[in-house]
Amino acid sequence: MKVRNRLVWISAALLSASLTTHCGSTDNPGAQQQMPPPVETLAVSDASPKQVKNSGGSAITLTGTGFQTGATVTIAGVPAQDVTVVSSTTIQLKSPLKAATCGQVPIVVTNPDGKTAMRSDLVSFLTSTLQYSIPSTITMGTYPRQVLAVDLNKDGKPDIVSANSGNANQAVMFRLGSGDGQFQAATAFTAGSSAYGVAVADFNNDGNLDLAAVNSASNDISVRLATGSGQYGSAMNYTSGADPRAIVAGDLNGDGAIDLATVSFASSNLNVFLNKNDGSGTFNAAASSGVGTSPVHLALADN
Hints:
The protein is built from one helix and 21 strands. The strands form five sheets. It has a five-stranded mixed sheet, with no helix packed on it. The N and C termini lie far apart (135 Å). The longest helix has 22 residues, at 2-23. It is elongated. By secondary structure, it is mostly beta strands.
């Protein structure tokens, strides 16, 4: 009887071990299967920079997904130079020479497995010669005769100033720059009649830029001193020759103060306004001398 019980116990133990081993085996449909890693889709999503010269050798970085070591790149159908697959999301390269092509060009990435990805809207070739973008229009006063680019408010961003002959209330107008090619709302000043030119300089040596306009129809100049950064006081007018057309600012007598000079079309003369150099930003009456007939431009130089 004891022998029979022992055999039954051994048989039960063997059956239990067999069931345990079977439940833990990999052929059990309920057991977890190890799945292969997902394959990244090959795609080009961006390029930097967006514009390069078509003379070749410009560094370009492509970003995307699924890049494989050994991938090749063509730009406008020409193999790129020095292609380096940094990672599955980044490729660095140098642009090829394509002298006859300008504008947007197709970029094609080809992996060693033969898969390709193309984008035609990421990179543009520019001619290696000088060129300019499409102009944008900025409204100034009526009939602008002269425009200057200068930092009026000392913020490191170029501003624009114009002299306008068509509207006395907008004789001098400026727009402060935002530093990105955009300009703020215009500020306008009256001056004499028919402003033909404008000069910008620090007339009273206070560190701020002042304005001076030459007025063709009223035969005078109008000086406005800055009361702060990009802010101006009332005009001070000085008589010039007949029909003055141009104005310049500079230290004409070497005393360290900024003077003014104009040329007058109708009276054919040069008019020099020396700065009183007393910190007031005011000028002496014009000293005139004859020049050629009907002058319209004026420049300063050390000859």
